[in-house]
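G., before I forget:
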Amino acid sequence: MARPPSTPDLQALRHALSAVVGAPYVRDAVGPDHMADFLVLPGSTAEVAAVVTICHAQGVSIVPQGGHTGLVGGCQSHPGQIVLSLTRMAQIEAIYPDERVAVVQAGVALEILQNAALAYGLEPGIDLAARGTATIGGMVSTNAGGIMAHRYGVMRHRVLGMEAVLPDGTIYSDMTRVVKNTAGYDLKHLFVGAEGTLGIVTRVVLKLEPVPQSTATVMLGLPSAAAALEAISLALRSDVGHLRAAEGLWQPYIQLTARAQGWAEPSFPLDQPICLLLMLGGGNQADLTEAIEQIFGATLDRHPTATGIIAASQRQEADLWRLREDTDQLYRAHPGAPSYDVSVPLSEIGAYVDHVVNGLAGIDGGIAPFVFGHLADGNLHIVLNRNGPLTADLSRAVEEVLYTPLRAFGGSFSAEHGVGVKRMSYLGTATDPGKLRAMALVKQALDPDRLMNPGKVLP
Amino acid sequence: MARPPSTPDLQALRHALSAVVGAPYVRDAVGPDHMADFLVLPGSTAEVAAVVTICHAQGVSIVPQGGHTGLVGGCQSHPGQIVLSLTRMAQIEAIYPDERVAVVQAGVALEILQNAALAYGLEPGIDLAARGTATIGGMVSTNAGGIMAHRYGVMRHRVLGMEAVLPDGTIYSDMTRVVKNTAGYDLKHLFVGAEGTLGIVTRVVLKLEPVPQSTATVMLGLPSAAAALEAISLALRSDVGHLRAAEGLWQPYIQLTARAQGWAEPSFPLDQPICLLLMLGGGNQADLTEAIEQIFGATLDRHPTATGIIAASQRQEADLWRLREDTDQLYRAHPGAPSYDVSVPLSEIGAYVDHVVNGLAGIDGGIAPFVFGHLADGNLHIVLNRNGPLTADLSRAVEEVLYTPLRAFGGSFSAEHGVGVKRMSYLGTATDPGKLRAMALVKQALDPDRLMNPGKVLP
């Protein structure tokens, strides 16, 4: 059973925390969206464990925080809680280039690791727009995804070893530097994606991948999602290079974004049902470009109405990719527009998007979604053409359209953004009861007092 | 707390089990190495759940069994237990070629799935010698590895979705067909590698990979493990094709096996410290062979004493790979020879093997190990030149040499074979106490009566 909420003696708590992390690292100000009593900044796993031990003894709950770039309210805090930030644990402890492995502390920002790895011709195999601020610990705790998941998996698949602090202050240490390890339960996977509700990730061992020396990009205008998936299949089977990214942009998205960025027809036709940005990576630029041309040619053979632009320079390549990355344009047109993040099995994508477009058109005078995302792994982002937030009734109606079909074919209503507070209620009502039961048993086992990020993921 | 051992009424139990799975599927004979009272063969997840529910109610413990190819005694059973075999759940329920995904029941043998996927030009991305008998459920439960783990990960990384039966009979269902899913704790990872001690895996969704149309193989004779890792690095960065397998065979292994297979010097020099079998996969045979020649050439530039054979035909390629697969030769020379299965970070391999060779040479008149394994992922198999079993003292001395260095640099004393009964004691003494504590908490939460495969992994 959870303990009754405690009313800690704030002065005594501050004193105790200062004694283990140093007074300058216990601060009042924790930002406008935090209501916690303190921000605590431990500098080592031992200090994290000491803080957790004190809070456990006093019944004070902890909100762990990385780069604070999450989208589901996983770091919201309340009076009576402390925020534990990992940002002082920001060392890259080692890079083993021959192993393609890095050992990093949780507070390292993704971009810092990307730059350090690049010095060895390597990369973390994961990339996302918040790279400058998102921390490795936060990305592990939320099982971050991004544009290379079709090839390198999600954050869960990048982690070889982990050190974490359990809710009672015990240090869990399993810093293996190898991919094969069957020595007992591999419990690091409990902490990946648990959003800090089962413990605090402090250090990890990550796999790295070779960075391709060259890349080549085509943007294809195509008649259907099926045609886009065919092109992706061709790229996956290319003799030369490998598929690096495959992003789908449905017509409403590409029209709004390309126009906002000043692209002009007819040099760039905006009337195709879907655009596919396809990037190959490899060694030889000319070979890659030839492979991209072959994919374009084969696509034209099958779909004579297809259009395409092959990037002729790095600058043109960057321009094409800016169409995908510049999602801000949606929110400028529709401030606070509600956004959704679903996973759809590839062969269901076409029918699913049709269902969503038709279903939303029937709601409240007609909603038209912007759909875009990681086509090679089935992760679609859906943003409504409405200023947010929606009323509760409208929100439920939209969720029903978007989420209801997913379970039948094995999709997910939260692909890469997590649950936090934003999707907790839907998780509780729409998840298999056996899975909910197992989640509750695990939470109860590791955090019976419910002190680790309470009110997130699980009620 | 665990219940006291029960003394079930065998007749009543048999009757109850027959009622849920059908009388023909409750059998006495369970094989010479089983002492359990019954073998029960459920045909569906619902039947597995019914069997588990009955056993849970009566306090009867269950030993789950797949293809029974494990090497650590994970399927040993005792009087008062039942063996629950998944072999009747042997349907490939669906293959989605465009998604590169298969939905399979736990009792499907790996080779059956390989053949079914091959019809679509796909493969499960995992392969091992017991493919004809090992089942997918067993491979998931033991987190199987094999020769492609450097590229496609281990079994854990192949599983997208899972259905399992918890120790109380609850069905856990999370059959997602997507790689990105952050909707709650991803508890399928609890069942992967738990060797049936936390529940019974009944169905899984697996990722598939395109099968390369062509392959090319070189066997390099090299002066050191470091030279072998350099060649692997070249292969990983090859512009053409991709590294499919990289197996290292140290001199004692290659000498014994090649001679037993009738290879003759000087056509095939056997005096190099290490041989590396390197296979590229890709589309165009001529391009692949050229890439392999380039790797050989670059290796010769750096190591003028290197030797090499490039397979000139599929038959020659098969002959080369038979050197790696024919591990039976070791056991013919040394019946019952003790074997070990460790993971070593790549940059530690050279020094580790030196340590092992020197350390074993000092034991009991000198032991000389045969070392071979998956060089690209650091998984070494070590077989002693002694008939087994060893005395307990000798066994401890060998383990001390082999296992002691592993933890300091993040290796593993059980890479891909699991813990079972064989390595349970070492796990208990050599594992981080925080990890052991977390394991115990999870076991207690899911299986408080200790009815699921008791006496394996955890005491």
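The longest helix of chain B spans residues 285-302. Residues 328-416 of chain B form a domain with the Alpha-Beta Plaits fold (CATH 3.30.70.2740).

More on Monday.
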